[in-house]
## 1
Amino acid sequence: MLLLMASAAAQSVRVSVYNYSQITPETVAQMEREAAAIFRASGVTLEWLNCRGLPDELDDAACWQELASAGLIIRILARPAFPGSFRGEPLGYSVGRSADVYVSTANQVDCAIPGAVLGAALAHELGHVLLGPKAHSSQGIMLAAWGRAELRLIARRLLCFTDRQGDRIRFAAAARARRPRPE
């Protein structure tokens, strides 16, 4: 008997993006493409919602509704708000359902594709939002500190989540999808 297994539908996660830095919309779009490709390799589709203004000043109804729901939030910042609180130069930071990515640190990286580095940092921080704060690993995109080897992999679009992390991310995305959305 031959059984045809239905392939698992890709999980989808909505992400509100707030660009508080001076990078161009084209660079933001490149970051989003890079992060989306990393997640897509693990079976998760990222849906981007580019928002303007501060969360309490939103004039965009879709951004406001997403903020009111349990959607994920990314802030692109010029530099860390509290630079002395980190060891080394962080590319990002996450807490709860939100994450920050720091442009100043990515600009210091000797890489021909800063948008790729920012996109990988974005994927890493979204990984923390979905996997938890202690999700660092000994390999892959969730490595705590990236060196030259990881930057080469980023440039070749080869730094990604491990299979186990991909499984956990799909599970977390599915759990988020089951939550009721506010009307």
Note: Strands lie at 11-19, 44-51, 72-77, 92-95, 98-102.
## 2
Amino acid sequence: MKDYFALLDEPRRPWLDAKALKAKFSALSSDAHPDRVHSASEAEKQEANERYAQLNAAYNCLREPKDRLQHLLELELGGKPVGIESVPDDTMELFMQVGQLCRRVDGFLNERSKVTAPLLKVQMFQRGTDWTDKLQALLQSLHVRRAELEKTLQSMNAAWESAPRPGDSHRSAGLPLGQLEQAYRALSYLSRWTGQLNERVVLLSL
């Protein structure tokens, strides 16, 4: 398995500074950009292209917290995390709120699609604005929860910084992998719910 942390010369850890990561990626990818080897041999060009593609894949993975945690868990556990189907207890209330609001908005959208009278369309527009406000308010709650998880990840960095080096048989015992998996599951659901709510915001605007 390709270690994207090593590829970007980053130590393995749950939280990364987004600006520092982008700066490091920019420096590495600039050196590896195919345009810098336009006069090289075909083998050298192919190598540069592969290196550039790998750096892009690594950056795209590590800059997104959910993808970064999945990759980190795969590196530490030797396989993909399991049990992500169950909603974490501390996000269950948000799960219920998102499901209920999405169903109600879907009902409104279905009702709106059948309206043809101009006066009723005006009324539907105002109701649609109200639903959009409700969606935006819930999206803000998701953003707050995501920010809380980011702080948790940042506090977990110390465990990785003090753990034995990768490959050491004692490494897993010193890492809070259960807590990391919980954070990964929560971020996975938050990303999914954010997408569902944003999709309905777009449909209401049409």
Note: The helical segments are 4-7, 18-32, 42-62, 65-77, 92-112, 118-162, 177-205.
## 3
Amino acid sequence: MNSTLLMVAAGMRSRMESLDVLGNNIANASTSGYKADHEFNRLFWTERARSDPDTGAESLMPVAEATRIDFTQGPLIATEAPLDVALTGPGFLAVDGPGGVLYTRNGHLTRAADGRLVTPDGYALRDTVGAPITVPERGQIEIERHGAVSVDGSTIGRLAIVEFGGQPPLAKLGRNYFSAPANIRPGPAGATTLAQGHLEASNVSAPEAAVRLITVGRHFEMLSRVANLVGNEMDARSVEELGRTR
């Protein structure tokens, strides 16, 4: 196969993957606590990517190798809702997910019918002792900056806020939840605080993401045109060679 066409196809594929990442970021630009993904690319060599069969010159192909989660702080938005909390710092709220402990930065909390403090998906927030926090139906709720929850001045629990140190080794699970490898245990929060009546906004810069989306889309369009040109050239050569063999 023509090595130029192979390289163009690889470039188109990497641009498509970039478009998927950018599209997801833009779709979550208004999601509380969302952390943006950034793709990074590299070049790889393959036996099939030889630009000149006579000289053996080798070509490198682009590939979107993986994505990296951007855990930088998002801006805080005041909501005045007593069960909304925004995290400032590198920590996460620990919740009881369907298959174990999950982590989130989305502090839009609610009270379940049984009184448990839960996420919008119904996952119970964990206390520092690992148990759910039960909130009475009535009373003034206060959540202090280090996670202590009190009702009418009486402490009823403390939100489990954890930190991983450095770049958190977390994987996205969707719906703004993260999971940690089984061999990784987070530590208690030392540099993270909560702000009651606030939510952390997404750290996606919508204007920047939109500009990059347009740029990557133009790259894909350009590569598509190159693919068509190369394909037409190959067809022309094939017709010419067939004519010579007769």
Note: The CA atoms of residues 16 and 141 lie 47 Å apart.
